[in-house]
Design a protein that fits this description.
The chain is built from eleven helices and twelve strands. It has 365 residues and is an alpha+beta fold.
């Protein structure tokens, strides 16, 4: 509606004074997206004096609050680093975003800070909230439209109402701007990198290895703590895909970086109450250099007369297409599949970036 006045709805003031564009920065967006927005979108917003607001969460919980990174009608740059990155939260917990479920990562890093800003900005005044769901995202629209806040929030889906697909949007941008517009997503997003989107995501990993390397390290640690937690599901890790497709530079950078990092011997205990439903305890029992902790794990295995395993099949992963569990583990107890509750316990080694964590109720459970 900024480039074609005929599409401007009557709910938008002629001078766009009641239009607010709100962006939530997760801290992990590809830099290419930021450069495109700064070069092509921000000049249009400045031309029409449209208000742009950038928000980000300040910490891992709602009580940490929301930071307003920018509130301007003449924006010249974006703040892609945010404040509290989604990847930082994953890093200290030893986890990665997962396929399936309700996209908690989006809710925490995008939805929650935007909701908090709107609540502060509009109070109890009604407002129209337009989202860019396309014609193939009816399920997301159905879920979103149920969130009306008693009528205060009036959702609108203009792209869906136009009957446009994602490809229609990309074609429009190409006609208007002459550029191929990549998907906006976190670098470690399992949805963006799932089968249809993998070619585009793979190209970004190849083109921007320095941005990609830390996420490879994060997955490496995550897999050490849980071999079933590949970014794209059990037995479907990011690092295996990159090896398969010969995108080696970010892996080389990640390996070089890991060799300079402090490492830990981790004790991991996991109590399963049902399939894929567990509580976990993680302790870093020894800190040291890369070689030191590997030697320590071998020595403990020898003293305890327990063989250190490696290259095993991953439980719960497809045997035909799944990864191998390449992490070295000293197993004290393996879970019994199909029998609950069930406990597993092992020692492993990985870069020391995950904090010790245990629920207060874990020992009793």
């Amino acid at each position: 509606m900024l480039t074609d006045p005929a599409t401007q709805p009557d709910t938008i003031a002629p001078d766009f004074s009641n239009l607010v564009v709100v962006i939530a920065q997760t801290g992990d967006e590809w830099s290419t997206t930021g450069r495109l927005v700064q070069h092509y979108v921000l000049p249009v917003l400045r031309k029409h004096n449209v208000r742009l607001v950038e928000v980000a969460r300040r910490g891992p919980t709602k009580k940490d609050g929301v930071a307003v990174l920018q509130d301007s009608r003449q924006p010249y740059r974006l703040h892609l680093n945010g404040v509290y990155k989604l990847s930082h939260e994953n890093r200290v917990t030893g986890t990665m975003p997962q396929l399936g479920g309700v996209r908690k990562c989006s809710q925490k890093a995008k939805g929650a800070p935007q909701d908090a800003w709107r609540a502060n900005e509009f109070g109890d005044r009604p407002y129209i909230h337009a989202l860019g769901f396309n014609i193939h995202e009816y399920t997301r629209i159905t879920r979103d439209s149920a969130y009306s806040m008693g009528g205060q929030r009036v959702p609108a889906y203009p792209i869906y109402e136009w009957g446009w697909s994602r490809q229609d949007c990309l074609d429009y941008l190409y006609r208007r701007l002459g550029v191929e517009w990549p998907k906006s997503c976190c670098r470690h997003c399992p949805y963006a990198g799932n089968k249809p989107g993998w070619p585009e995501q793979r190209a970004r990993f190849a083109a921007l290895p320095t941005e990609a390397a830390q996420h490879i390290i994060d997955e490496y640690v995550c897999l050490a703590l849980n071999p079933r937690s590949g970014l794209f599901g059990p037995g479907r890790s990011l690092i295996t895909r990159l090896h398969r497709d010969q995108v080696t530079e970010p892996i080389t950078l990640a390996v070089a970086r890991m060799k300079t990092m402090p490492w830990a011997v981790y004790r991991v205990r996991r109590l399963y109450h049902a399939q894929a439903t567990a509580i976990r305890s993680v302790d870093s029992v020894l800190l040291g250099a890369h070689g030191t902790v590997h030697t320590a794990l071998t020595d403990v295995g020898r003293l305890a007369d327990i063989a250190v395993t490696k290259n095993e099949e991953i439980a719960g992963a497809p045997a035909r297409h799944g990864d191998r569990d390449t992490h070295r583990r000293l197993w004290l107890r393996r879970r019994d599949d199909g029998i609950y509750p069930s406990l597993e316990e092992f020692y492993t080694v990985a870069p020391a970036q995950t904090r010790d964590k245990e629920l207060d109720s874990f020992a009793e459970a």
